[in-house]
Structure formats: structure tokens, C-alpha cells
Description:
By secondary structure, this protein is mostly beta strands. It has helices at residues 37-40, 95-98, 127-131, 148-151, and strands at 20-23, 78-87, 101-106, 112-117, 121-126, 144-147, 154-157, 162-167, 175-180, 185-189, 194-199, 207-212, 219-224, 229-233, 243-246, 253-258, 265-270, 274-279, 288-291, 297-304, 307-312, 316-321, 326-332, 343-346, 351-354, 360-365, 371-376, 390-395, 402-409, 414-421. A hairpin with a 3-residue loop joins strand 21 and strand 22. Residues 1-25, 27-67, 91-97, 133-138 and 381-385 have low confidence and may be disordered. Keywords: Cytoplasm, Flowering, Nucleus, Repeat, WD repeat.
Amino acid sequence: xxxxxxxxxxxxxxxxxxxxxxxxxxxxxxxxxxxxxxxxxxxxxxxxxxxxxxxxxxxxxxxxxxxxxxxxxxxxxxxxxxxxxxxxxxxxxxxxxxxxxxxxxxxxxxxxxxxxxxxxxxxxxxxxxxxxxxxxxxxxxxxxxxxxxxxxxxxxxxxxxxxxxxxxxxxxxxxxxxxxxxxxxxxxxxxxxxxxxxxxxxxxxxxxxxxxxxxxxxxxxxxxxxxxxxxxxxxxxxxxxxxxxxxxxxxxxxxxxxxxxxxxxxxxxxxxxxxxxxxxxxxxxxxxxxxxxxxxxxxxxxxxxxxxxxxxxxxxxxxxxxxxxxxxxxxxxxxxxxxxxxxxxxxxxxxxxxxxxxxxxxxxxxxxxxxxxxxxxxxxxxxxxxxxxxxxxxxxxxxxxxxxxxxxxxxxxxxxxxxxxx
Length: 422
């Protein structure tokens, strides 16, 4: 994958597909409800949207001559507003060099947020403290400005820069796993604020992604610059991993995600421009290959039981059918050619969120390939200077008619957006 900078830049390898795998028996089988995955998985200003998206459009009528119906045009069915900005009042321009946010994660109760990045800190925020008591308006001037020093509940210092965080299931939001630039995966007990579990199996190469299964006891997986996915039993500190998967011909693994709905699929995104699906019950070869991106696949997220969304440095997102590995839709509008800019899906609302190297956050509706809303960070009054990019995003997974999106930038600032269905 080549050298990756502290700003999460991604280089494109020149490689061909070659698969090898070293697999040991999992310490326990997936739960009984896990079935055959192939059948059971299935210039615009800030806060403005493109003029054509301001108007709700009715379903297009048939063209004259009995031709096919015109495709329905994208429309925004949500009112989004910037609720608060979390930044450093001491020196907002210094954050771009020292505090780029590479990852944002809501806990399973959707009440707390964890962030990590260049600053070698895991910061824990209460969502109530970021939203409670503050007015939310249509203009950026109505957003609450909060200093980092008073915004977070607490933080934990880490030995290396962080690229990935994931709350451990069934831990009551007490344990969080972190992947770092030194190739180490560490679990932290947040009540005692100490590391309790560590794995160092990637030969010092950066760990880009960490995830857990959603059955008990959990299995963990990490993807790294070394071109491997290490799958391990979370109950066994330091013991040999239960499987090593090498998708592609040694291309860096940028993203790993287990099916959050309880299925047997592990999705893997690689720098060889492909994404792969593995059956965790037999991690020998992929059961599906998602091929269609022109550059490295930086993120993969399950949208529902039958759909996966991928992001790439080719500047587009793609929605894939798990049933037949087919591209359902391609989403274009944001700018992404070299950096990790984040990807998150809000499953209840069918919305996709991502950052952009144009220093904007974008929202897509799964039904349309054009963005329905965007917000420019460079115009926020709380941040001085220009440049930078939106480096991480995360949706809160609750509600149906209201939503919360948190986005972080290379300036080290957090923006919290709220949305209401019209």
C-alpha cells in the first residue's frame, strides 16, 4: 500500500488477485440463527443543498410514446442543522497538525461518543453534554461553540496514533478496542481507564480497522497494512489467532466489518480495489468478491441484511447486493482521491454519510446517486484558516424521524448535526 501519511492518505497498488489463507477452528460456532449468507444476507454554501434538491418531486410521469418512466430525481426529505462545534479555543489552527480525527464511534446505547486520531488519545463524550441545553438553528451562528477541554467526560492516553475504534459488544459500553499505527490492537477498560488486552500480530504495520462479532462470546478481527486480516478470540490475551486471511496479493487491508445483524459474513475492503466477503465458519476463500472500484476500497459498512456500502479513493460510494455481488447504485458528489474521509450509514433512515477532501460533509439517500445535503466546514466561524478535509463521520443508530450525525475534521474539531424528517 505504500507509505500512508498521518492524514490517512491512501495510495493505489499495482496488484492482481491472489488468495491464500491460514485457518484454525473457531473456538465456538456461530449462533444457531446464522444461516446460509447467500440466502439470508441479503459553488454551494454551508448547510445549503443543490437548488434542484430543494424541491420535492412527484413520481415522474410516463414519457410520451409509451417509453419507460423517467427516473425519480433526488430530493432531501430532511431538515439538517449544525447543533454544536467542539474545538480548541487556544489555537484552532494547530489542530490540523496535531489532532486530526481519524475515527468517531457511538457506543451501543447511542449515548456516548468515542474519538481517536493523531493526538494519541481516546476521548469519551456524553452526547447529552454536546446537545443538551443548546439551541439548534438553521444558521451556523446558532450552533453552540464548546471547548475540547470542557466537552469530553474523560480521555485515555495511548502509546501510538489511532486509526480505528470499536466498542466491544456485550460489555455495557465498558470496553473499547483500538487499532494503532504501531500495528497493535488494544482493549481498554473505560471504567478503570487502563488497557486490559493486547495483540501484536501485524509485524508493526498500521492497523486500519478493528471490529467484533455480535454474538457472545465475541470474536475480533483486525485489518492492516501487512495485507492480512487477523481473527482472534477475545477471551485469549496474547494467544495465537484463530485465523489469518490474506485477500489479494498482499495488498493492504483498509476495512473489516462483521455482519451486525448476526449473519456469518465478514466484509473486507482492500487496497487492490476490491472488497471481499468471507464466511466466518470457513475462512479459506471469499464467498463473494465486490469488483468495480477504480482505486483502493477504504471503508465497508452493512446497510441492511442484504446490502453493503463501500467507499473508495476513486471518489464514489457503491451499494452492493450481497445476494449476487452486484452494484445496485453508485453515489458521486464528494471529493476523495487520496485520504480516508470516513463512511457511516444510518440504517433506520437509509442515509449514508461521508467526508470530503473539499472540507465538506455529504449525506446521500440510498435511493439516489446524488447527494441530498452537504455542509462546508471551512465556513464555520469557530475555525480559522482554510484547507483541511472532513476525516471521519458517524451516525447515531436510533430513531426514525430524527437523526444525529457527528463529523470530525483534519482540524481536530467535531461538528454535531441534527436532522428532522419533513
